[in-house]
Recover the amino acids of this structure.
């Protein structure tokens, strides 16, 4: 069976759609969580923070993927994403002197807020 290629430009998405809302927050959260996890692993003394960041990046990827195709599981994934972002932010906020942890926590809080709106 061959699949017909459909370009993204041929699928109209309303500007106020939940599919477009939050994608920047998700992508920023993924990037900062990956960077923060890597730094925490390299530092060797922050395994809980590293694991929280890796979990958060993975859940954000799933939510973004489900959002991109308008999955019926999107709301549930966004709710899980918001909870995971909150957990990660709380862990990163325990390291206020670390600039990367601070930036990661901020990105997680923004993503959490966006995902809560999308889950509603």
């Amino acid at each position: 069976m061959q699949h017909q290629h459909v370009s993204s430009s041929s699928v109209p998405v309303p500007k106020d759609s939940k599919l477009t809302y939050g994608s920047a927050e998700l992508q920023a959260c993924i990037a900062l969580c990956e960077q923060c996890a890597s730094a925490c692993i390299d530092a060797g003394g922050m395994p809980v923070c590293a694991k929280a960041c890796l979990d958060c990046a993975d859940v954000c990827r799933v939510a973004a993927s489900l959002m991109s195709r308008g999955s019926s599981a999107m709301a549930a994934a966004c709710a899980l994403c918001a909870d995971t972002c909150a957990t990660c932010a709380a862990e990163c906020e325990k390291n206020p002197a670390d600039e990367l942890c601070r930036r990661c926590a901020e990105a997680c809080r923004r993503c959490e807020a966006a995902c809560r709106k999308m889950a509603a």
Q: What stands out?
A: Residues 51 and 116 are 22 Å apart (CA to CA). The helical segments are 23-43, 47-68, 74-92, 99-119. The radius of gyration is 16 Å. The chain has four helices and no strands.
